[in-house]
Write a structure and sequence with these properties.
With 258 residues, this protein is of the alpha/beta class. Strands 1-2-3-4-5-6-7-8 form an eight-stranded parallel β-barrel, surrounded by four helices. Helix 1 packs parallel to helix 10. The structure holds 2-phosphoglycolic acid. 2-phosphoglycolic acid binds next to strand 8.
Length: 258
């Protein structure tokens, strides 16, 4: 494959431990022939599935959907970096739209979580995205810039940062898939912000696209110059469907070996 390209899925609160293990085993078997996917394919299940999934996965990278910033403390119901580290998780998803808009997570929370994730050597997958109202008010660039700058305040190793652009209005059953031209424009703006924060190597931070990615739009999105990966929800939750989507991108998208 010519272009380094990431494929990942967040399983949200859909699969139990045994369902996740079965899913990951099937996905590994289906994708076994795509050797260059190693390191570039990740799955983010529920906390309760992390340990068993880690034990059964050989090639797929494992992420957590959230993490508290403190190593330990009086935080009932929270999960700490040390707990995730012990399991062998290597990606921490931060600021998914549902965390921000359903669970009330703020930029300040995400800043602390990003700092903790980096401090503990995880890859921080920072999710950003504007609401429909913000888009209609012409505030997209300002909102995304604020979300990025508030989360990435430290002098962080850029190889430990991934960004996922997921417009809130494009996610889930009710989501309206974004137009590729819009995604390309916004990813360009995100990359400019990353370059301003990290002048030396901001351009090496992968920016993934997510939000109603499916079998029809995966190739147009993957072909965009500023899209470095796809972060898929519903279309990835059956292993066969995710495998087919990956194959479609690899066989049809520009920059990929056939
Ligand atoms: P979706 O989910 O692909 O089902 O829209 C994307 C996400 O929430 O990450």
């Amino acid at each position: 494959m010519g272009k380094k390209f990431l494929f990942g899925t967040n399983l949200k609160m859909y699969k139990t431990n045994s369902q996740t293990v079965a899913y990951v085993q099937q996905l590994e078997a289906l994708t076994a022939d795509m050797k260059d996917l190693d390191g570039n394919l990740f799955v983010i299940p529920s906390y309760t599935a992390l340990s068993d999934t880690k034990a059964c996965s050989k090639r797929i990278r494992l992420g957590a959907q959230n993490m508290h910033w403190a190593d330990c403390g009086k935080f009932t119901g929270e999960i700490s970096p040390l707990m995730l580290k012990e399991i062998g998780v290597d990606i921490i998803e931060l600021g998914h739209s549902e965390r921000r808009h359903v669970m009330g997570e703020t930029d300040a929370d995400i800043e602390k979580k990003a700092a903790a994730a980096i401090r503990h050597g995880f890859t921080a997958l920072l999710c950003i995205g504007e609401t429909k109202e913000e888009k209609d008010a012409g505030q997209t660039a300002a909102v995304l810039s604020r979300q990025i700058r508030s989360a990435l305040k430290g002098d962080y190793p850029t190889e430990k940062i991934w960004v996922a652009y997921e417009p809130v209005w494009a996610i889930g059953e009710e989501g309206i898939p974004a137009e590729p031209a819009y995604v390309e424009q916004v990813h360009g703006q995100i990359k400019e912000v990353l370059q301003e924060i990290y002048p030396e190597c901001g351009d090496t931070i992968p920016v993934l696209y997510g939000g109603s990615v499916n079998h029809e739009n995966c190739v147009p999105f993957a072909n965009l110059k500023h899209v470095d990966g796809l972060f898929v929800g519903r279309s990835a939750w059956e292993a066969e469907s995710f495998d087919q989507l990956i194959r479609k991108v690899r066989s049809a998208a520009l920059g990929f070996e056939r």
